[in-house]
Specification:
Number of domains: 2
Strand order of the largest sheet: 1-2-3-5-4
CATH class of the largest domain: Mainly Alpha
CATH architecture of the largest domain: Orthogonal Bundle
Distance between the termini: 46 Å
Order of helices and strands: EEEHEEHHEEEEEEHHHHHHHH
Largest sheet: 5 strands, antiparallel
Number of helices: 11
CATH topology of the largest domain: Transferase(Phosphotransferase), domain 1
Strand content: 15-25%
Length: 332
């Protein structure tokens, strides 16, 4: 194999992903090269174990999860060889000036993502880091079309992927349900309330992340753009309504400071700044947000999202339940 180009990530924290030519298979592959740092090596070995389990139960590669070909250790750098894929959904959004995807593409992406997560959950695996950066288009090909929403449609263009096929990647944080659960998981914007409140987490934390992802794909922006816990909870309430007392009153000792004795969110009194208060006030209810961006199937999409973004993880839709939602059969 020979180095050709950098894919998915430039010099990231863990290392980088390279495009290489496999001389034996006569095909391009992607090689994830992990830095020689013990904690990254440990995470890489976990990812290899997970990828092997996923591949063992998916001989045809039809479950939508990244397929491992092999792995090797080169000068203390763990190298994971996988199929070469296209850009992430986040990268596609970014290169497209954060123009949202059409609701039909969001439906296709959501269906495939839920199928992959349902497959993982059947194997008692929880991904814990679902986000647009970890969902890759299989193909890099795209179409260039006039941007009809621009004031000058003839001069401005938008891009749409030629194929809606996707693959789920990055299983370094994945864990089996029966194994030790660290207290904090998920990238901030996609973190479920039970994680923030220290209530413990399981499969439903993936479902919350999927809800956040679907909103982002059809609006072009992350739903909860924050880096602070209380502000994050206030944004959730602004979009979804009050946090139920049966949730807030169970918050652990680190998180109980975010609530009054009656279990109400200590907002805006506890805000760290006026700008934080303004940022929350700028947010709108979920229904209004979706109606601003979706031209058809909006009602069904809102209903699906409300099922995915339940504060109580016990009430949240499972992956299999979400797959049966009418939104996925409403093709016009």
């Amino acid at each position: 194999m020979g180095r050709n180009d950098i894919l998915w990530s430039p010099a990231g924290t863990f290392g980088r992903v390279l495009e290489c030519w496999d001389r034996e298979e006569q095909d391009y592959v992607a090689i994830k090269v992990i830095r020689n740092v013990q904690k990254y090596r440990d995470a890489a070995m976990i990812e290899i174990d997970v990828l092997r389990v996923l591949a063992k139960h998916d001989r045809t590669g039809s479950r939508g999860c990244l397929r491992i070909r092999c792995w090797f250790d080169y000068r203390n750098h763990i190298c994971i060889v996988c199929d070469k894929l296209g850009p992430s959904l986040y990268d596609f959004l970014r290169r497209n000036s954060y123009r949202p995807f059409s609701v039909d593409l969001v439906r296709d992406f959501g269906l495939q993502l839920l199928q992959s997560v349902a497959y993982m959950h059947d194997l008692t695996l929880i991904h814990t880091d679902l986000k647009p950066e970890n969902i890759l288009l299989v193909s890099s090909e795209y179409l260039k079309v006039p941007d009809y929403k621009s004031s000058q449609p003839g001069k401005h263009f938008a891009y749409i992927p030629k194929s809606s096929q996707i693959k789920l990647i990055d299983f370094g944080s994945a864990t089996f349900e029966s194994r030790h659960h660290c207290s904090i998981v998920s990238t901030r914007h996609y973190r479920a309330p039970e994680v923030i409140l220290g209530l413990g987490w399981s499969y439903p934390c993936d479902m919350w992340s999927i809800g956040c992802i679907l909103v982002e794909l059809c609006t072009g922006e992350a739903l909860f753009q924050t880096h602070e816990n209380l502000e994050h909870l206030a944004m959730m309430e602004r979009v979804l309504g009050p946090i139920p007392q049966q949730i807030s009153l169970r918050a652990d000792r680190k998180a109980e400071k975010y609530f009054t004795r009656r279990g109400e969110l200590n907002w805006p009194d506890g805000a760290v700044s006026r700008e934080s208060v303004r940022a929350v006030r700028r947010m709108t209810r979920l229904r209004n947000l979706i109606m601003q961006h979706v031209d058809h199937s909006a009602g069904l999409l809102i209903d699906l999202l409300q099922g995915l973004l339940k504060f109580d993880p016990a009430e949240r839709l499972t992956a299999k339940e979400a797959l049966r939602h009418p939104f996925f059969s409403d093709r016009r």
